[in-house]
Amino acid sequence: MNSGLDDTLSIVIAAAGDGARLGLGPKALLPLGGRMLLEAVCTKARRIAGEVMVAAPASRMAEWQRHATGCAVIAGGESFLRTTASLAQAASRRKLLVWSVAAPFVSEPVLRRVAAGVPEGGVCAVLQPSDVPLAAMQDGAVREFLPRDAVMAVQGPQAYDRAALLDLIARATDADWQQQSFLQVALRHGQPVATVMGEKTNFKITTPDDWRLAQYLKDLL
C-alpha cells in the first residue's frame, strides 16, 4: 500500500446532512467503534491528503470543528451537489476527492486508487461489480433483466481534476443541479468518466439496516 501525503490532493467531506432517512440525527455525530463517524473519516483523510475540508450545517460549524481536528470547516449547502460546489470552490489543490461522511468504510487503498485515477481535466468513479443480474424497472414493472457483467454499482468517493469540476459547476444547468453527483453532470456534458474498482464493504449508511450492518463492520473504521 502506498503511504504518505499527496500534496496535490484535497479531500473534501460532505457532512452537513441531517440524517432524516436514517432517523438517528446527523450521521456525522453517530458513534461507531468508539468514535464519531466524522472523527473516523477525518482521521483517515488526513493520512492521505495535503488538505482536508469538511462541510457542516451552517448553524453548527463550531460543533463540527471540535470533531474534525486538523480540517477546515465550511458551511454546507441545501443539497449534496451544492455542498460539493462550495467545497470545490474553497479547496486549493489540483485534485479533489469528494467523500461523504455516510460512507466511512472505504479503505485507504481505494481512496488512494481513485485519487490516482483522475486524468488531467477529468473525473474518476469507484465501481463495484454486481454479483447478480439486476432488473431495470419502469412504472413499477420489470422492463428487462440486465446481466451482471453489464452493470456495476457506483460507490464513493469521487475524484476530480478541480479545474474541470469548477468548469462543470460554472456551466451547470437547472437540470444538472437535480442530479445526485457531478459524475452524472460530467456525463451529461459529454465528459468521459475514468473508473477504479471498489470493495464490497464500501457502502453508504442510509437506512436502519445499513446502520445495523455498520455495527458488525466497525472494526474496519
List its salient traits.
two-stranded antiparallel ribbon, alpha/beta, Spore Coat Polysaccharide Biosynthesis Protein SpsA, Chain A, seven-stranded mixed sheet, globular, 221 residues, 29% strand
Q: Can you describe this structure?
A:
- Keywords: Nucleotidyltransferase, Transferase.
- This is 2-C-methyl-D-erythritol 4-phosphate cytidylyltransferase.
- It comes from Andreprevotia lacus DSM 23236.
- One of its GO terms (molecular function) is 2-C-methyl-D-erythritol 4-phosphate cytidylyltransferase activity.
- With 221 residues, the protein is an alpha/beta fold.
- It has one domain: Spore Coat Polysaccharide Biosynthesis Protein SpsA, Chain A, CATH 3.90.550.
- It contains 7 helices and 11 strands.
- The strands form 3 sheets. The protein has a 7-stranded mixed β-sheet with strand order 5-4-1-6-10-7-11, sandwiched between helices.
- Helix 2 links the parallel strand 4 and strand 5.
- The longest helix is centred in the middle third of the chain and has 11 residues.
- The protein starts with 5 loop residues before the first strand and ends in a 5-residue tail after the last helix.
- The model has no long low-confidence stretch (mean pLDDT 94).
